[in-house]
Amino acid sequence: MPSSPSSADTPGRVVSGHGRRLVVEAADASRILCHTRGKKSDAVVGDRVDWQASGDEGVIERVLPRTNLLYRQDDFKTKAFAANIDQLLVVVAAEPVFSESQLARALIAAADAGVAARIVLNKRDLPAFAEARERLAPYWAMGIDVLDMALKKEPDDARARLAPLLAGRSTLVLGPSGAGKSTLVNLMVADAKAQIGEISQALNTGRHTTTVTQWYWLDAARTSALIDSPGFQEFGLRHIEAGRLAALMPDIGRHASECRFYNCSHRHEPGCGVLAALALGKIAESRYRIYREIFAELEG
Ligand SMILES: Nc1nc2c(ncn2[C@@H]2O[C@H](COP(=O)(O)OP(=O)(O)OP(=O)(O)O)[C@@H](O)[C@H]2O)c(=O)[nH]1
Ligand SMILES: [Mg+2]
Ligand SMILES: [Zn+2]
Question: What is the pLDDT of residue 246?
Fold first, then answer.
């Protein structure tokens, strides 16, 4: 079998694209536009793949086993964010006002996938910041790391605090549109524009807002990566069983051991430890409201 140095002998990694057009980074760091075989594509950014050169382009033969896959799912559609990630950074900002429900959903999906998560609260320079910080009180209270920053206005502070958290890991950056995800990536990745390259630019529409998930290396040795993603508005969790939801919300799940019934749904049962904790103010009302909202969706 003939082989070229940048081809299939060593697996590549999907670094951007969507649908059936994906950019694969070969072992020698060259990037090539690849197609998937068949009608349905199941390779996503972060995937390690076997691939073959085919003319100027490539064909993905096989997706190698994943360590994890972060995705959202509504009634009709499954949408993968990325595979093989070490941690999640959810970026929200003082402005635009963020949906706490969407934030909670991202954290639940991460817990379900076994991925550690942190929150970045951006735009500390804006007057609305204090109120946004207050809305995040339940999250830092449950032990989630919340990083207050101004990615644009105080870049040196942000860079110094983020760098050690990102070293040696692949980090998916997720959050609503306009929160500052791409600002964060551009701050940490010196040659971000170069890494996007012509192939990815051709996949993109050229708008300011991010439309394609994109894997960036932070270092020349390619040990640390940041994955920028388009802002999300909805975050369906249909892939999660209603009965598992409380366990994926630590502030709620920690009271479930006090429930009288082992299969308590924490909504109306007598002797419910969660309802008791809620009545005592040990669970934030917004968090319990989100629990019920998602439970109702998963049950239906
Ligand atoms: N005031 C203020 N604005 C900021 C800060 N950081 C980022 N911005 C601005 O917020 C806007 C959105 O930033 P982006 O980084 O493009 O946001 P994004 O999350 O990538 O948005 P999408 O790609 O649409 O999902 C830009 O106009 C930034 O200049 C900050 O610290 N303070
Ligand atoms: Mg962006
Ligand atoms: Zn209960």
Answer: 98
